[in-house]
């Protein structure tokens, strides 16, 4: 862990910003505009388009980004990101990943994120997410509960205190020290999602640290229906079944889930009291989806595909 830390103001020259895109719509247009304003040289930005039909690839091209097109059936959350690392980041020290619907809150957000690597023991860092304008109470609470206003650096020593939150990392806005990423095996291709969690677990177990940068901000949130929440949590359950070392070293997710439910009750009571009856309904759907996901190996593949939000994974 003796890499020379990149100097934050000039670190973009040794960094690639990578955005997987598929039919990003108007949100991707906003995100591309924010990226263009934050990155002096648009050629430092790589867009991997997996078959957009709404002109998202043209938005990338017109923005001056380096554009790569792949077949939709070849896309995989981990494998596609690792392909970008292997092919497009050979001479780089850092890689930043954004999702197509994460809109940077000003150019300083990239500088703030990269400043995390001034600590040579930090292997990965992620920024703060804020709800999109007009977000509903459930949508906003998910984001505000997961992303506080205080930065922190976590190591394996924090596992007894923070539990599963120790290994939290979000690829909606995250950066990786490529030497650490390579030493820990890179991104996986066998997981349904959670390639960022896989990397965080491996880095922490190898002695690296994860940095949360509250000053590095993006707008990113989702207005999921109850059914979509159930499917999303089914996928989380599958991930936790596929990644047993997460629970083994950092504990179960259920305890964190109970804290989330209590927090959600309080938030909805303050901001949308008429929606309070939906709190137990939504969380029951999430828990049912999660438990089914944990037992996915005992379920028919066709049922898994129906229950999942990531349906292409099962084909």
What does this structure look like?
The protein is α/β, with parallel strands linked by helices. It folds into two domains: 8-219, Spore Coat Polysaccharide Biosynthesis Protein SpsA, Chain A, CATH 3.90.550; 226-310, no CATH class. Helices cover 43% and strands 16% of the residues. The chain has 13 helices and nine strands. It has helices at 25-38, 56-62, 77-88, 108-114, 137-146, 159-162, 178-183, 195-205, 226-242, 244-250, 254-271, 278-294, 301-307; strands spanning 15-21, 45-49, 66-69, 94-98, 103-104, 122-130, 152-154, 173-177, 209-219. Strands 1, 2, 3, 4, 5, 6, 7, 8 and 9 form a nine-stranded mixed sheet that branches. Helix 5 crosses helix 11 (254-271) and helix 9 (226-242) runs parallel beside helix 12 (278-294). The radius of gyration is 19 Å and the shape is globular. The termini are far apart. Mean pLDDT is 93; it is low at 1-9.
Query: What does the overall shape look like?
Result: globular
* CATH fold naming of the largest domain: Spore Coat Polysaccharide Biosynthesis Protein SpsA, Chain A
Q: What is the correct CATH architecture of the largest domain? A: Alpha-Beta Complex
CATH superfamily of the largest domain: Spore Coat Polysaccharide Biosynthesis Protein SpsA, Chain A
Q: Could you estimate the helical fraction of the residues in percent?
A: 40-55%
């Amino acid at each position: 862990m003796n890499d020379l830390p990149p100097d934050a103001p000039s670190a973009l020259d040794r960094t690639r910003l990578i955005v997987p895109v598929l039919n990003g719509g108007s949100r991707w247009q906003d995100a591309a505009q924010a990226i263009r304003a934050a990155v002096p040289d648009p050629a430092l930005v790589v867009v991997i388009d997996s078959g957009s039909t709404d002109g998202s690839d043209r938005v990338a091209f017109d923005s001056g980004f380096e554009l790569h097109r792949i077949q939709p059936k070849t896309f995989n959350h981990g494998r596609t990101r690792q392909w970008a690392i292997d092919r497009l980041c050979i001479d780089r020290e850092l890689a930043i990943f954004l999702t197509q619907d994460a809109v940077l809150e000003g150019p300083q957000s990239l500088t703030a994120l990269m400043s995390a690597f001034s600590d040579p023991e930090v292997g990965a860092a992620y920024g703060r997410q804020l709800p999109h304008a007009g977000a509903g109470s459930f949508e906003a609470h998910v984001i505000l509960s997961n992303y506080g206003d205080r930065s922190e650096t976590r190591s394996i020593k924090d596992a007894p205190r923070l539990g599963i939150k120790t290994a939290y990392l979000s690829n909606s806005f995250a950066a990786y020290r490529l030497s650490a990423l390579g030493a820990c095996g890179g991104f996986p291709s066998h997981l349904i999602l959670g390639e960022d969690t896989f990397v965080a677990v491996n880095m922490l177990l190898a002695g690296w640290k994860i940095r949360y940068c509250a000053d590095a901000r993006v707008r990113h949130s989702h207005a999921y229906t109850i059914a979509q929440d159930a499917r999303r949590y089914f996928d989380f359950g599958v991930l936790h079944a596929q990644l047993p070392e997460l629970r083994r070293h950092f504990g179960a997710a259920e305890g964190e889930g109970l804290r989330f439910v209590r927090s959600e009750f309080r938030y909805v009571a303050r901001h949308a009291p008429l929606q309070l009856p939906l709190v137990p309904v939504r969380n029951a759907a999430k828990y049912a989806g999660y438990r089914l996901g944990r037992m996915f190996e005992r379920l028919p593949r066709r049922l898994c595909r129906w229950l999942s939000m990531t349906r292409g994974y099962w084909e």
